[in-house]
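Q: What changes when arginine is included in the input?
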Amino acid sequence: MKLWGGRFTKEENQLVHNFNESLSFDQKFYKQDIQGSLAHVKMLGKQGIITTDEMNDIIKGLEGIRVDLDNETLQFDNSEDIHSFVEAHLIERIGDAGKKLHTGRSRNDQVALDMKLYTRHEVEEINDLLKTLLNSLLKVMEENTETFMPGFTHLQKAQPITLAHHFGAYFEMFKRDRSRLDDIHKRMNLCPLGSGALAGTTYPLDREYTANLLGFDGPTLNSMDSVSDRDYLIEFLSALSTIMMHLSRFCEEICIWNSNEYRFVNIDDSYSTGSSIMPQKKNPDIAELIRGKTGRVYGALASILTTMKGIPLAYNKDMQEDKELSFDAIDTVKGCIVLFTGMIDTMTFNKDIMEASTKNGFTNATDAADYLVNHGVPFRDAHGIVGQLVLFCEEKGIALDDMTLDEYKAISPVFEDDIYDAISLETCVDKRTTIGAPGPDAMKKVIEIYKEYLA
Ligand code: ARG
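A: The predicted holo structure follows.
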């Protein structure tokens, strides 16, 4: 059944139908479409726009369709879209009363509502998945406040940190991602239903009532904007892109840490793959694939921004393009978060290798300079002296910790016996006690804050 055959004299061209249809993908939100119709029809009944009997028949019919779709006893056909499909089946099931469902409504406000309901649910789901990931990160942090590793800048060893501190950086990122989702949820939570095609309707609709039934904070305030606003999707795809960017950075680090050269971590066999030719290989495919899939989520954002940029008010068919790319991006991000969490949960850390790596890269050079500063040497001079120490060590192939006191004194007489303690890994990390720093005391305070946040 077509919703709009009346003024047409020719059959639709098959290619036109195929090009125009959206049922093949908007069937994804059949639940939301029926949920929106139920709210609309309850409102029509309450307002006396249809009779109570008609209202009850329609409700029963819609619920039956939902159950049959859930059980897959009702199959999708060649209807134009999910809205036509549901309406056609309603009329087939309950007769003339079904023809009143669409009173005071357009597919324009209907689809705006469906997409918003669907997206709102996915915003919540992804927020929950991120919470699970944060719990996994926190567990690693709690167990590793004293697991030393090198902190890097320019991918060069810089200063010693701990594994807890490194994971804490990602905790912050995903925590911000969640707060972005909260913001989006708040801003998008206004109901477009009742906006009609673009100019509202003359029926005495109660928009507050339907908004309330559907869990919105209230109705939208401009019917033209309501049917043509996709800002919330752009914001959501932007937030999803940022989540993917964070996952991708983390995956990149895991690939580096998992490399034969680093061996900081072991990705569990269940999250690794082999090579068809090289028997020795255990590849970090999952981390690489998450990193790779970031591209398609960015692509969805660029795509919808481009689609929306030239659309005059109000609804235009261009907007149908919002669906496939959003669905793909949402499903991709959900899959990536779940897989990433599983990979973290099963990953093990080679703490000895991480500690040895921290010791052999002059990560305590800054602390050696600070030692001199504490003994009255201006920092710029101290920097130069420690530079000479590093040069000396590099030539001999040793660490600062391995130099004799005589060797130290030959470069600067300021050095005394307590230099060894001052540049020990323990001191280098422990002394960093300002909030946000890697010192275990500072870290434990932050972990407490994170625990409260997740509680
Ligand atoms: N499938 C359409 C979409 O996704 C539904 C709205 C159709 N409205 C219209 N005036 N043709 O945008």
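Observations recorded in class: Residues 22, 26, 81, 107-108, 111, 315, 317, 319-320 surround arginine (CB under 6 Å).
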